[in-house]
Amino acid sequence: MKILVTGGLGFIGSNFILKLLHDSDEYQIINVDAELYGSNIKNVSKIKDSSNYEFVKGNITNKRLMEELISKCDAVINFAAESFVDRSIADPNSFLVSNIRGTFTILDIITKQKKRLVQISTDEVFGSLKSGTANEKSALNPSSPYAATKAAAELLINSYSKTYNTDVIITRCTNNYGPRQYPEKLIPKTIILAKQNKKIPIYGKGTNIRDWIYVDDHCDGVLTAFLKGKSGESYNFSGNNEINNFVIVKKILELINKSEDLIEFVEDRPGHDFRYSMSSEKISKELGWKPKVNFEKGIQDTIKWYLDHEDHWKDSPSSIFNPTPWKNSKKI
Ligand SMILES: NC(=O)c1ccc[n+]([C@@H]2O[C@H](COP(=O)([O-])OP(=O)(O)OC[C@H]3O[C@@H](n4cnc5c(N)ncnc54)[C@H](O)[C@@H]3O)[C@@H](O)[C@H]2O)c1
């Protein structure tokens, strides 16, 4: 089976491609990625010469290119997106282009070519929940420009499913952690700054809660939904692991033997959602998926990976470690 993976030089897309090519030789992958700031060609260095893998530099908004690539494949798994909430506050436009226009471009082509699309979405579309847990029937209520573009893409996809019977599946996941994430995000940023004995910024009081899932579990879920999911349905994946930011940072410092004095509380992000929470009961009951990696083990493996792979992140621009990135100009 030939699959077009978009955004496969990013964090989750690259882990997904590595998993697919490692687990089986029945898949051929074309990876299309625009090589934007968060991508890293080193993420796929292990498989770059595999006969089952091809990389194409390109933008998912490029209709002609996407028509050509999709015509060579059986399905599309769309990971490509602008993905950092803080940047969506500083520069929302690029989020509208990639996350809405880009998804629309793919959606329209797969409808005409009668292929399957799996759209990778996020728990952030449900907005902040003081209590309780969102499920697949919960209303979309996004807070940030990032989450709003992901919700908009979902609405377009649902409209195509109803209007044209397009073969689509939406998956939503909670916060991923693991190897190959761009170091502007909380966990890699904390590991890298701690290693360098630099101050680690935490927004507000650090009480914001996220549910953390190891990236391999998310990739397993995407593959399960792609292979066994019902067209027109959405599936949520959670790690059953809600933790606040302060506790995560303290845990990382403890594991790498650094003092909590490195923590610095900084001005909170505007519109910072307090808590996300989703239930994965549907995919668990209907398709048999469950997260396997326990947080204690996953976070230790993640720390080890960043400490062993300095070459992956050492050239990152220092501006990404700015304590309040949403205040930066458009060039974060
Ligand atoms: N990271 C998380 O915790 C998380 C949680 C839930 C859902 N998601 C979703 O998973 C997907 C992947 O997230 P990630 O963390 O790997 O992001 P990432 O930023 O690490 O990777 C995104 C990749 O997409 C590419 N890209 C962006 N716009 C593009 C375009 N217009 N054309 C071609 N390539 C483009 C980038 O170059 C990059 O390589 C996103 O859709 C995101 O919304 C992420």
TrEMBL record:
UniProt keywords, alphabetically: Lyase, NAD
UniProt record, GO biological process: nucleotide-sugar metabolic process
Pfam families per record: GDP_Man_Dehyd
EC numbers, comma separated: 4.2.1.46
Record-level Gene Ontology MF annotations: dTDP-glucose 4,6-dehydratase activity
PANTHER family: DTDP-D-GLUCOSE 4,6-DEHYDRATASE-RELATED (PTHR43000)
EC category: lyase
Domain NAD(P)-binding: 4-302
Domain of life: Archaea
Name listed for the protein in its UniProt record: dTDP-glucose 4,6-dehydratase
Organism: Marine Group I thaumarchaeote
CDD domains in the record: dTDP_GD_SDR_e
Listed cofactors: NAD(+)
